[in-house]
From TrEMBL:
Keyword Oxidoreductase recorded: yes
Gene Ontology MF terms: oxidoreductase activity, acting on the aldehyde or oxo group of donors, NAD or NADP as acceptor
SUPFAM superfamilies: ALDH-like
Keywords: Oxidoreductase
Species per Swiss-Prot/TrEMBL record: Sphingomonas liriopis
Similarity annotation: Belongs to the aldehyde dehydrogenase family.
Protein name (Swiss-Prot/TrEMBL): Aldehyde dehydrogenase family protein
Residue intervals of the Aldehyde dehydrogenase domain: 22-470
PROSITE patterns given in the database record: ALDEHYDE_DEHYDR_CYS (PS00070), ALDEHYDE_DEHYDR_GLU (PS00687)
InterPro entries (alphabetical): Ald_DH/histidinol_DH, Ald_DH_C, Ald_DH_CS_CYS, Ald_DH_CS_GLU, Ald_DH_N, Aldehyde_DH_dom
Keyword Metal-binding included in the entry's annotation: no
Residue positions of the active site: 245
Family matches, as PANTHER family: ALDEHYDE DEHYDROGENASE-RELATED
Length: 475
């Protein structure tokens, strides 16, 4: 099917216009046309969600769990097919894309179990004969706005807990990757989500996103810091609950005592794989003086061997940049780094048999932490290398950023590893593993400008998707 409508109140609805979705590996590959909703259709979706949500919340938790488990099983079965679709529209390699679909299935399985987990509390009475119960109830209608870099996994880890805890959803996927979001919704719809409980509205953020924020009880957003701040300012006027996951400028520290093989593997993977288009990607590599030259030489050798190409080519390790605009942003920052005094290794546009947005990874040598290229999120396969004297300077440089999402360290010293774990100003800390790469059953989120509101994923998701009620009962 080439034309894909919005899902509103259980019906697939055409939009005001159709927007064509293409392949960043091959400009000649058209994935399909996707309906762009207008503000009126968003209002209809929110109204449908309000009508449907109380009934969904009253269903037995086992019924909600069964729907999520059914959808999870289909995702798992269709992972190769859906992974190919994801790779075509986003540009990550087939292996990474299939892995992302499997991750989405794992998330749905997890929240199928969470739906039936007892999450209330009973307190001993202070007053004779008065019992105290603390229970959790759904927030109501949740607006979910997701980014293009993990178009099925992030959508899953927001939608699954919302549905598990009895909320209704109005979901907007990213403009660049509507196909993966559409596929996830279609699977959940057929798995038995009632009409109105899950609504899909595609289109521009300035139209669809704003209309969602204005009308829902809670907003879960992943994207850029400027957009997140704008959503926060808009949502607070409606007293909507907020969960924002935004940018990062994630440090990876390499100490003199590091295992060089581990340090290089972590840095190359964290900085360049999935084309650096991960909010947890390594973008500042902070290297102690004694190991700096050997480390850089090894990284340069690894970079030269990386295979960049079409996302569906089995030999490809790194696919294209997601679109022409993001490619230009990457090139602009690489040019800026040269102007700031960095030596740039790589960072060149590449030609391949198909017309796509291919870029060789870039290593910015001689960087310091005051440069714009070291402080602003690039969201591409670009990493600065910052030379420091010792661990104390490395920790100070790592924390000197407006962001606080992920951080990492390569060291064989338990003392330094534990100190970094305690004192790194980030929500995620990695020791001898890449800064990118997370599990589905543990909390995810950062500090400072990276995150706002309760954590995502795992059992911590209930903090956002439920509200607490305290009841006093005379027995």
């Amino acid at each position: 099917m080439r034309d894909h409508g919005n899902l509103i109140d259980g019906e697939w609805i055409a939009g005001g216009e159709l927007r064509t979705n293409g392949n960043p590996s091959d400009a000649n590959d058209v994935i399909g046309d996707f309906a762009a909703a207008d503000a009126g259709q968003v209002a209809d979706a929110i109204a449908a969600a309000r009508r449907a949500q109380p009934g969904w919340a009253r269903k037995a938790a086992s019924e909600r769990a069964a729907v999520l488990a059914t959808a999870a099983a289909e995702l798992q079965t269709r992972a190769p097919e859906l992974g190919e679709l994801l790779a075509r529209e986003e540009g990550k390699t087939r292996a990474d894309a299939v892995g992302e679909v499997v991750r989405a299935a794992q998330v749905l399985h997890f929240f199928a179990a969470e739906a039936v987990r007892a999450i209330g509390e009973k307190y001993p009475p202070v007053r004779p004969g008065v019992d105290v119960d603390v229970t959790r109830e759904p927030v109501g209608v949740v607006g979910i706005i997701t980014p293009w870099n993990f178009p099925i996994a992030i959508a899953a880890w927001k939608i699954a807990p919302a549905l598990a805890y009895g909320n209704a959803v109005v979901f907007k996927p990213a403009d660049l990757t509507p196909a993966s979001g559409w596929a996830l919704v279609e699977i959940l719809h057929r798995a038995g989500v009632p009409a109105g409980v899950l609504n899909l509205v595609m289109g521009r953020g300035s139209v669809v996103g704003d209309a969602i924020v204005d009308g829902v009880d809670a907003v879960s957003f992943t994207g850029s810091v400027p957009t997140g701040r704008r959503i926060a300012a808009r949502a607070i006027g409606n007293m909507a609950r907020l969960q924002l996951e935004m940018g990062g400028k994630n440090p990876f520290v390499v100490l003199d005592d590091a295992d060089l093989d581990i340090a290089v593997a972590c840095a190359v993977n964290g900085a360049f794989f999935q084309t650096g288009q991960r909010c947890t990607a390594t973008s500042r590599i902070i290297v102690a003086d004694g190991i700096h030259d050997a480390f850089v030489d090894r990284v340069k050798a690894e970079m030269a061997a990386l295979r960049i190409g079409h996302a569906l080519d089995s030999e490809t390790q790194i696919g294209p940049v997601v679109d022409a605009r993001q490619l230009q942003t990457d090139l602009d920052y690489i040019r800026l780094a040269r102007e700031e005094g960095c030596e740039v290794i790589g960072g060149d546009p590449l030609e391949r048999p198909t017309k796509g947005h291919f870029l060789s990874p870039a290593l910015l040598l001689g960087a310091d932490n005051t440069m714009r290229s070291s402080r602003e999120e690039i969201f591409g396969p670009v990493a600065s290398v910052i030379r420091v004297r010792d661990y104390d300077e490395a920790l100070a440089v790592a924390n000197d950023t407006p962001f606080g999402l992920s951080s990492g360290i390569a060291t064989t010293s338990l003392k330094h590893a534990r100190d970094f774990q305690r004192n790194s100003a980030a929500g995620l800390v990695m020791v001898n593993v890449p800064t990118a790469g997370l599990d589905y059953h543990v909390p995810f989120g950062g500090r400072k400008a990276s995150s706002y509101g309760p954590r995502e994923q795992g059992s911590y998701a209930r903090e956002f998707y439920t509200t607490i009620k305290t009841s006093y009962i005379l027995s």
